[in-house]
Amino acid sequence: MKISVKVKAGSSREKIEKIDGSNYAVWVKAKPTDGKANEAVIKALAGYFDIAKSRITLLTGHTSKQKIFEIDV
Questions:
Q1: Are 52 and 30 in contact (CB under 8 A)?
Q2: E strands present in 1-73
Q3: Span 38-48, pLDDT tens digits
Q4: Long-range contacts for 48-54 (Cβ within 8 Å, ≥24 apart)?
Q5: How far apart are CA 40 and CA 55, in angstroms?
Q6: Which helix (H) or strand (E) holds 12?
Q7: Around Cβ 27, how many Cβ atoms within 10 Å?
Q8: Cα–Cα distance, 50 to 38 (Å, whole number)
Q9: pLDDT at 73
Q10: What class does CATH assign to 2-71?
Q11: How many CA atoms lie within 13 A of 12 on its CB side?
């Protein structure tokens, strides 16, 4: 399944909010440097969907706030 994620890096707290069927907003504490925010988002999504991090792939948006992830459920 593919999901669209709007990332808010450098937040004071971490949370995930489902906007609609395949759109999510994710707040992470990590700063968007050296891919740390991307890793934090993958970790947060893995916890949210209760799956291993290895089953989540970042398809597009490596340096953007808007990202598309493939989740192997």
A1: no
A2: 2-8, 15-20, 23-27, 56-60, 66-71
A3: 999 999 999 99
A4: 48/16, 49/73
A5: 15
A6: none
A7: 19
A8: 18
A9: 79
A10: alpha beta
A11: 0
Q: How far apart are CA 27 and CA 13, in angstroms?
A: 7
* Nearest alpha-carbon partner for 61 in 41, 44, 31: 41
Q: What is the pLDDT of residues 9-51, one digit of tens each?
A: 999 999 999 999 999 999 999 999 999 999 999 999 999 999 9
Helix (H, G, I), strand (E, B) or coil at 60: strand
d(C-alpha 4, C-alpha 33), whole Å: 21
The answer to whether 39 and 30 are in contact (CB under 8 A) is yes
> Tokens representing 8?
């808010």
The first and second tokens of residue 17, run together, are: 């909010």
The residue type of 69 is F
Q: In this structure, what token pair is assigned to residue 59?
A: 């398809």
